[in-house]
Design a protein that fits this description.
The complex is a heterotrimer of chains A (315), B (318) and C (370). Chain B has 318 residues and is an all-alpha fold. Chain B has 14 helices and no strands. Chain B folds into two domains: 9-49, no CATH class; 78-316, MetI-like fold (Orthogonal Bundle), CATH 1.10.3720.10. In chain C, the strands form four sheets. A six-stranded mixed sheet of chain C has the order 6-7-8-3-9-10, with helices on both faces. A five-stranded antiparallel sheet of chain C has the order 13-12-11-14-20. The chains are: A mainly alpha (315), B mainly alpha (318), C alpha+beta (370).
Chain lengths: 315, 318, 370
């Protein structure tokens, strides 16, 4: 059993029966904490369904008296985000989608290939290579954003030149492309880690048998490893999706204004200090921003946990 | 049928198969070729960039990078600022806040995580419902978390107001708008978000304890409390360390959480090294100082992570 | 007053009954082995004696006291586990002394007890080490030390040798037996290995699917198994079980065992069986152990009833100390245990002899011994 399985399955343990008072205390504490964990979310949802005067005038724990979905509609296409002309968050939501999908797919695929090489085609120094890629997972992004900004700026200029020359910028200089590049590069450490640990326990005999059958490097990958990699694929995709969707630092540094991803737009919306603070709209926007990752969590929670464990505790 | 060696059976077979032809040599190098782009990318964009930032910290870059080297001046500046307590420099505030936030965040995440894990380990029913509840905050962006808590702790429409409405009118909780107390709100939101993760780690650790050890403790007459204190928790020391490392790492990197809880960060009261770096680089156009703070953040993380990674990869090499 | 008395013990998990009415007694100083295939309930039974699991009905008495509802630490028992279950964060000395600590025994007294036990088990030089620094055999000794120091009424062993390699297993088995003989302690021991059962026990209880198949001394279990399961489970290689029919013709009642080729083997009904109970043409199962089938010269000279027959040798397995020979009879293989230098070859037609003193008959319907 992996450690993640130990978390998600609940094997019956000791037979000792606690006294009734102890059990009441235990359940009580657990329920109390469950409430603490849920309340902020519940308040968020309720606030997003109230008209503004109910929010500012009333108790945040009170149920909405005049239930309304207007804040949601507002958030989607009316709200003012910072100083932008664009209204509503739908554009930014789309930006995030456009960025996340390629980033997740590319980094996952590369991670799978890397894990394959590192475990089935060992070479001298593979441990060092892995160690270096592993350490790359943990660097604070602050230490790379300055150079990255410089490089991306340069790429942008090259893109402009190419555009002048050929009529197409090859995607260089496009903020979404920039973010995809950034997230792929800095996601490689994690995806490689996940696949490497998974393929480490994959039986070498299958690879050898395929080689005896004459399969090439890529054929072995495609026909032997990939079909048996579904669980780790799901785990990696979920992990990357969550991290990239929720990222803020890279988004705010490299994709400002109209090209910003959802998290940046949300922050701008919530922290705009001009005029009246529309709490209900802010909350609706926050929920919309959180919806994709929450949905993934609800649907595939077990894989989510496995991803967390693999990222922190190896094996 | 015996295989020749366990070490490199794969490449041995491959070499026999393909021979000394050009295609053969290509096949030999193919794995390394495939890995190379990722490795090179990481080399350049992670290590290379870190070096670049390191280099910048020795320059006098302001709004744009320059190559004008000025030695350790920036480091000396930060060093001096560390001791500027009256009025406190931004860097001093950042360091103090880091210690406060980091300490509280790590301590309470560990404490709550362990407590919840132990409670869940008591053969209770409904674990399938409770566990996801404790874990879901991890799926949220820090911005969403901060937004939710900013509302929740807002004195005018949040907790303070709600408690007033219920009758306790002298209740005071304006921490989130009080510059001195803001950092504690960040800690609260952070613990809320991450303690579920620590709980998951501890729960796995608890469940990994050999059942027979617990039976032996029963026969020895140890009460549940004694069993946990003398046997189970000491066995969990490696998990403690793993959790500690992960939490410390997250605390140092925290940026979005601070921003979303404190909003415009009035007067830099909730400054942390991460926000310090950002504001000095992009807002105050002091790129060199920003770089220096980034390097210091990196060094701190490296000091924690390198020994940990070293020990982990060493174990795996069995 | 026996040290251990189990009366009509039943245990249910939900609707499934895993222990079905167990009755066993064990006198002081006895060595009871619970043996049976995986899933037969022997470990569960041991856990109920220990108090680690509750019973659904029945009674367990230790030293005359009913212990059904007592906490394990209050039943005056000690247990040695399959995986040793040593506390990894404590030293050997602390491991041994932990139970005493929990009971509030004073430090000086604890240290004396630990030293005494360490001396008995020859682990004095290991007292300061951690379990992770010990070998398998050393860990097992520490586990035994932890149990010994308690001086309980009953020692419980849960497959303690299963995790050891073959050679170590034999060595530790002898150690346990020696311990039993020198301390005279009362032991309940669970194993799936019937050799361990035979060599260690004064009393064996064979279990299958939660039901007690037979309780008796090793000799009883081996020579007079009460049903075909016990006959087959104990002893290696297993007892030969052949189908036959009873015939009363020709005066003395006999068992006829048909063969693929050749004359059926005619055997007199074993003396231990009351032939009057057998109807003409009744089907029986004839049981005889391989060592009771041999060359006519090698068969036990003191045997009162010997029957010879010719058979073709199918397989010869030289096993070093013996040679096992397989012959065909009644549609089944019959294994004979012969001398190491016996002159047998495959395909050879050889004269074998049954030592009928050792034979038993079973009823095919009930599988019980007649």
């Amino acid at each position: 059993m992996t450690s993640a399985d130990l978390v998600t399955s609940a094997p019956p343990r000791r037979q000792n029966s606690h006294s009734l008072t102890t059990r009441i205390v235990i359940y009580g504490l657990l329920a109390l904490f469950a409430v603490v964990y849920l309340v902020p979310l519940v308040v968020m949802v309720m606030t997003s369904l109230k008209p503004l005067d109910e929010v500012t005038g009333g108790n945040m724990f009170a149920l909405p008296q005049r239930l309304t979905f207007a804040p949601w509609a507002d958030a989607w296409d009316q709200a003012r985000i910072g100083v932008s002309e664009t209204r509503g968050i739908h554009g930014y939501f789309l930006n995030s989608v456009k960025m996340v999908i390629p980033a997740v797919l590319i980094s996952t695929l590369l991670g799978a290939l890397n894990g394959y090489v590192l475990t089935k085609w060992r070479f001298k120094g593979h441990k060092l290579v892995f160690g270096m890629m592993l350490f790359a997972c943990f660097i604070p992004f602050q230490s790379v954003i300055i150079p990255m900004a410089v490089i991306l700026g340069a790429l942008g200029r090259i893109g402009n030149d190419l555009y002048d020359l050929t009529g197409w910028s090859f995607g260089l200089g496009n903020a979404t492309v920039n973010l995809v590049i950034v997230h792929v590069i800095y996601g490689l450490g994690f995806t490689t880690l996940f696949f490497r640990n998974y393929y480490e326990t994959f039986p070498n005999e299958l690879v050898k048998a395929a080689m005896i059958d004459g399969a090439s490097f890529f054929q072995i990958f495609r026909r032997v490893l990939l079909p048996n990699s579904t669980p780790i694929f799901i785990v990696t995709v979920i992990y990357q999706f969550t991290n990239i969707w929720n990222d803020f630092l890279f988004g705010s540094t490299f994709a400002a204004g109209d090209t910003a991803p959802m998290t940046v737009a949300l922050n701008n919306l919530v922290n705009t200090s001009t005029g009246v603070v529309e709490y209900n709209v802010n909350m609706a926007a926050a929920i919309i921003a959180a919806a994709p990752t929450l949905l993934v969590y609800v649907v595939a929670g077990r894989y989510f946990v496995r991803g967390l464990m693999a990222g922190a505790v190896k094996g | 049928m015996t295989t020749v060696t366990e070490r490199q059976p794969v490449t041995a077979l491959a070499e026999r198969h393909t021979g000394p032809s050009l295609r053969g040599r290509f096949q030999d190098w193919l794995p390394r070729l495939v890995l190379a782009p990722s490795f090179v990318l990481v080399l350049v964009f992670v290590y290379g960039f870190n070096l670049w930032t390191f280099f910048l910290s020795f320059t006098s870059s302001k709004a744009f990078p320059t190559t004008n080297l000025i030695g350790f001046t920036n480091y000396l500046r930060l060093w001096n600022w560390t001791f500027e307590t009256d009025p406190p420099s931004n860097w001093y505030t950042a360091l103090v806040n880091m210690a406060l936030f980091g300490g509280l965040y790590i301590f309470f995440c560990l404490f709550l995580g362990l407590l919840l894990a132990i409670l869940l380990d008591q053969k209770i029913r409904g674990e399938g419902i409770l566990r996801p509840i404790y874990l879901y905050p991890l799926a949220l962006s820090f911005i969403v978390t901060g937004t939710a808590w900013k509302l929740f702790l807002d004195p005018r429409i949040g907790l303070e107001k709600a408690v007033h409405d219920w009758g306790w009118t002298s209740f005071h909780f304006d921490w989130v708008v009080n510059p001195d107390m803001m950092i504690y709100c960040v800690a609260i939101a952070g613990v809320w978000q991450t303690s579920g993760f620590v709980m998951a780690m501890f729960l796995a650790g608890l469940r990994g304890v050999d059942g027979e050890i617990l039976k032996a403790a029963q026969i020895d007459g140890a009460s549940t409390y004694q069993t946990y204190r003398r046997i189970v928790i000491p066995i969990m020391r490696p998990v403690f360390f793993s959790a500690l490392i992960v939490l410390a790492h997250m605390a140092i990197k925290s940026y979005d959480l601070v921003l979303s809880v404190t909003g415009k960060n009035p007067g830099g009261a909730a400054e942390l090294p991460s926000t310090f770096m950002y504001s000095y680089t992009f807002t105050r156009n002091q790129m060199a100082v920003g770089s220096t703070s980034a390097v210091i953040m990196l060094m701190t993380i490296a000091a924690i992570m390198v020994p940990y990674i070293y020990s982990e990869t060493r174990e795996k090499s069995r | 007053m026996a040290t251990l008395e189990i009366a009509d013990l039943r245990k249910r998990f939900g609707t499934i009954e895993v222990l079905k009415g167990i009755d066993i007694t064990l006198e002081k100083g006895g060595f009871l082995v619970l043996v049976g295939p995986s899933g037969c309930g022997k470990s569960t039974l041991l856990n109920t004696i220990a108090g680690l699991e509750q019973i659904s009905s029945g009674e367990i008495r230790i030293g005359g006291n009913v212990v059904n509802h007592l906490h394990p630490s209050k039943r005056d028992i000690a247990m040695v586990f399959q995986s040793y279950a040593l506390y990894p964060n404590m030293s050997v000395a602390e491991n041994i002394g932990f139970g005493m600590e929990m009971r509030g025994v004073a430090k000086a007294e604890r240290e004396n007890a630990i030293a005494a036990v360490a001396k008995t088990l020859q682990i004095e030089h290991l007292l300061k080490r951690r379990p992770s620094q010990l070998s398998g055999g050393q860990r097992q000794r520490v586990a035994m030390g932890r149990a010994l120091v308690r001086r309980p009424s009953i020692f419980l062993f849960d497959e303690p040798l299963s995790n050891l390699d073959a050679k170590l297993r034999v060595d530790m088995r002898i150690e346990i037996k020696r311990l039993h003989q020198t301390t005279g302690s009362t032991i309940v021991y669970v194993t799936h290995d019937q050799i361990e059962a035979m060599t260690l026990a004064t009393k064996i209880a064979v279990l299958k699917n939660g039901e007690l198949q037979q309780v008796g001394s090793p000799s009883e279990i081996y020579n007079r198994p009460q049903n075909t399961f016990v006959a087959d489970f104990m002893g290696s290689p297993a007892m030969n079980l052949l189908e036959g029919t009873v015939t009363q013709q020709g005066g003395a009642p006999r068992v006829v065992i048909a063969r693929k080729e050749g004359e059926p083997i005619m055997l007199p009904v074993p003396a231990s069986v009351d032939a009057g109970k057998l109807a003409e043409g009744a089907k029986v199962i004839f049981g005889i152990r391989p060592e009771a089938v041999n060359d006519s010269e090698s068969i036990d000279r003191n045997a009162r009833s010997v029957v010879k027959f010719d058979a073709t040798v199918e397989i010869v397995e030289p096993a070093g100390a013996d040679t096992f020979v397989v012959i065909h009879a009644a549609g089944k293989e019959l294994t004979a245990r012969m001398r190491a230098d016996a002159d047998v070859r495959r395909g050879q037609n050889h004269t074998f002899a049954f030592n009928l003193d050792k034979a038993v008959l079973f009823d095919p319907q009930t599988t019980a011994r007649i």
